[in-house]
Design the sequence.
């Protein structure tokens, strides 16, 4: 199945353009012409609207899709509460917000048969899911494909693979996502995660590891460009939405729904991934982070890291995001008389940073792919002693940064840890030591 899934993922066609109105049908004639909900939908299908925003939100912010499916979503039995595993949801009240700089190694190996949902492990977050504000940081480590279907009523999911490719079977069709790419699953969209990376001869089991940002608030969108102008950062046309593909499966299928922080399960007598055609803009996407058009200084100093924003979830205060997704993509550094690694700083925003591959240019060691660091608001951080010494003495010639791919979930509120994150064995207990060698160099003029 893994080989077939990869072949399927590699052969996909996509619709381009983040936030665009798309239309797709897996069977010719499945999309009705001129009406969203005709008296009789084509081919004996049911018409259903999936709303990701209130009906009356401004047109530019309105998210909705029309689905034409074999059975309506309303045709299901009652859900029952099930065990939440390692998943936690805001409000986070297990501990108090921690002002210390924190860093973790990658998640340990999971037990056999751990799928994406069972492999989700919540580090922490903020806000209140029931009030649709805030965010959560999750990690995942899985070694089995899902044979169940999942949806999240609490928020949208931004999936950042670090190891192992994923095939996402969604209501809208199939999306293949590899390390170096990200996938966005909108609020309420049902999907299944299949693992793609196993040895062709079957000697190695599939494995996948990565990060997830669960955004409870306003949906992610492309940031405004302001003085940058019309072009730069992430281009809308580089976001890929799936073409319609459906499952016509009769028989028991477990469906898990995340609702107000708890997991609820029901056994359907059919697959809910049975959408034959659809049109709208509340759709899943995949984006290749290496297509990010980096903007930077060509004179001296370097702009704030906000220039690396791929997606932003705005709040009620202009410019103050509920959560930003930022990528530190390959780029040239050319600044004259400039300390080129990220500078020492304290920030009103809170920063969770992860590493997809390679090394990060502000840390010499200890920050590894699959791991992550948390610098809550106003915690002082920046390059470690080895990086500072090297960058302070470096010959300032044009330099290409292309040996690493890091990202950041940046949020307006402190990230409060779960108890299992605060006490994890893979928490680095002596992270503060990376700044211990920063000595006094001050020499007053005589």
Sequence:
């Amino acid at each position: 199945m893994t080989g077939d899934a990869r072949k399927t993922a590699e052969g996909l066609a996509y619709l381009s353009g983040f936030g665009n109105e798309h239309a797709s049908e897996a069977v010719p004639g499945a999309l009705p012409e001129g009406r969203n909900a005709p008296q009789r939908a084509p081919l004996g299908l049911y018409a259903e609207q999936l709303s990701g925003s209130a009906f009356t939100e401004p047109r530019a912010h309105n998210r909705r899709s029309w689905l034409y499916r074999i059975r309506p979503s309303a045709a299901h039995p009652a859900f029952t509460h099930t065990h939440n595993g390692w998943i936690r949801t805001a409000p986070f009240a297990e501990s108090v917000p921690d002002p210390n700089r924190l860093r973790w190694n990658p998640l340990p190996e999971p037990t056999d048969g751990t799928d994406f949902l069972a492999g989700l492990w919540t580090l922490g977050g903020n806000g209140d899911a029931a009030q649709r504000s805030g965010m959560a940081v999750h990690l995942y480590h899985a070694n089995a494909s899902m044979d169940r279907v999942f949806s999240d009523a609490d928020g949208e999911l931004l999936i950042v693979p670090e190891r192992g490719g994923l095939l996402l079977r969604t209501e809208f069709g199939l999306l293949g996502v590899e390390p170096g790419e990200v996938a966005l699953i909108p609020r309420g969209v049902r999907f299944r995660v299949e693992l793609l990376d196993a040895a062709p001869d079957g000697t190695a089991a599939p494995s996948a590891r990565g990060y997830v940002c669960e955004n409870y608030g306003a949906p992610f969108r492309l940031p405004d460009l302001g003085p940058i102008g019309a072009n730069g950062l992430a281009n809308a046309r580089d976001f890929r939405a799936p073409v319609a593909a459906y499952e016509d499966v009769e028989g028991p299928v477990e469906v898990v729904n995340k609702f107000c922080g708890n997991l609820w399960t029901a056994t359907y007598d059919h697959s809910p991934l049975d959408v034959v055609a659809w049109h709208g803009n509340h759709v899943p996407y995949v984006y290749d982070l290496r297509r990010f058009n980096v903007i930077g200084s060509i004179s001296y100093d370097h702009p704030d890291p906000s220039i690396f924003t791929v997606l932003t979830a705005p709040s009620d205060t202009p410019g103050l995001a509920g959560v930003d997704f930022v990528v530190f993509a390959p780029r040239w550094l050319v600044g004259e008389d400039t300390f080129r690694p990220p500078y020492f700083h304290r920030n009103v925003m809170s920063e969770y940073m992860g590493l997809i591959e390679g090394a990060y240019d502000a840390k010499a060691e200890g920050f590894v792919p699959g791991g992550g660091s948390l610098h809550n608001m106003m915690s002082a951080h920046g390059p470690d002693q080895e990086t500072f010494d090297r960058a302070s003495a470096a010959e300032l010639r044009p330099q290409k940064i292309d040996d690493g791919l890091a990202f950041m979930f940046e949020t307006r509120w402190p990230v409060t840890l779960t108890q299992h994150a605060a006490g994890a064995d893979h928490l680095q207990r002596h992270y503060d030591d990376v700044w211990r060698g920063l000595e006094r160099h001050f020499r007053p003029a005589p």
Notes: The helical segments are 2-10, 385-393, 419-422.
